[in-house]
Amino acid sequence: MSENSGGFWPSGSAVPAGDTVSPRANTAAEAADLVGRSAAALVSGIPAKPADDGFFGPASVTWRISGDLTAPVAGLRALLIQALHPLAMAGVDQHSDWRADPVGRLAATSAYVSTVTFGERASAERAAARVRRIHERVTGVDPVTGQEYHASDPALLLWVHAALVDSNLAARETFGVPLAADDADCYVEEMVVAAELVGVPAASVPDSVAGLARYLAWVRPQLQLTAAAEQSAAYLLDPPGLDEEVAEIWQDIREAVLICLPDWARQAYGFTAPELTGSRRAEIRQALGVLDAVFLGEPGVLEARQRITLRLRAAAGASGGRPPGPVAAHA
Known about the structure:
By secondary structure, this protein is mostly helical. It has 16 helices and two strands. The protein has helices at 27-32, 34-44, 61-66, 71-82, 86-95, 102-118, 121-136, 154-175, 181-190, 192-197, 209-219, 227-237, 244-260, 263-269, 278-296, 301-318; strands at 139-141, 148-150. The protein has a two-stranded antiparallel ribbon. The protein starts with 26 loop residues before the first helix and ends in a 13-residue tail after the last helix.
């Protein structure tokens, strides 16, 4: 996971219908490289000499929230919520290689999000066009509901989008520095273009926090826990093969995700929310900082973070504002 990681459809790791994916014997070894592959995904999306500011740019709220330490919590929360839509989960389960290479899928999704967030417009448009082409061939029937699904369906794409946007706000509210109400609305509005890039009509995308909440409430009756969603959640919350240091940190992140989940999602999974005291919040924040330090040691991450920070400071200087602090990046 990287800046604002999370999301089912935009990954590029689809498997053509009718093909099968054989489980790999080295799933644990793949998971052990979670940090390294996530770091490479982040770096791949941040240009050294950008021709333009992309769809967001250093003056956007989107860039500011992307640098928060809570991004790993937000990403995992989004994935768990997205998985509760049976049609979205069926598409992933039947057409991706997540069981054989779950870390690869997470890294592919992270690379896409990084490119759309920080990349040039042309790069973001190319990445989105590739995702749309993949979506065209991802179709099938959900074995749980018996309904047909199409990955290019704007309704499913909107669900994935909304879960990620809501998760970024929720994670920051609980474990980071909450956005002011105006900034939160601005962030939701800015992210409309991300949904448009994958094929969702702008008019159907919530553009305010209140609108986002109304949309999520409207979709809730369609949600349910399937076996595939349960298996996906089990991997995400307890990935095998992590080294001792990262595995210990991951338990703190797991607890943070469970705390951040809305009540209805926790109930669907059968989870119990741990108690969040002031001291426990501080411990989780510390764990996120340690994970960020581990991530910083990966090749190219420091340089990528410096490029983002310099552009943020230049934008702040041009507008007469106070330069922001360093941008965090995470696994």
